Amino acid sequence: MKCYRKILRIPWTARRPNQSILQELGMKERQLLKNIKQLKLKYFGHVVRHNNLEKLCLEGAVEGRRGRGRPRRRWTQDISAWLGFSVREASILAQDRDGFRSAVWEATSYKDPP
């Protein structure tokens, strides 16, 4: 919503409900996050289907000790959280393009709560 407010030049101090901003943009739901998820998942499927440097970086581990503080959110953690599979299961699923496309569609489609 912050990006949508910036597009419309609405200051953060303005007290406007999110629904009015979405109506002004002519949208029913928030599309930006959905598009980012979809592109990230599609790129993951593309990377794991090929043997290249990106796949090596994705599956590799870094030697040594990690730094202090809270661990950073990893790219693979997003993938496994959105798909509901482990990264290994998702990479096996990505070998089947049609199956992976349906899983990506399922993960990025918004469902109405019961």
UniProtKB/TrEMBL annotation:
Top-level taxon of the source organism: Eukaryota
Keywords: Endonuclease, Hydrolase, Nuclease
Entry GO MF terms: endonuclease activity
Name of the molecule in the record: Endonuclease-reverse transcriptase
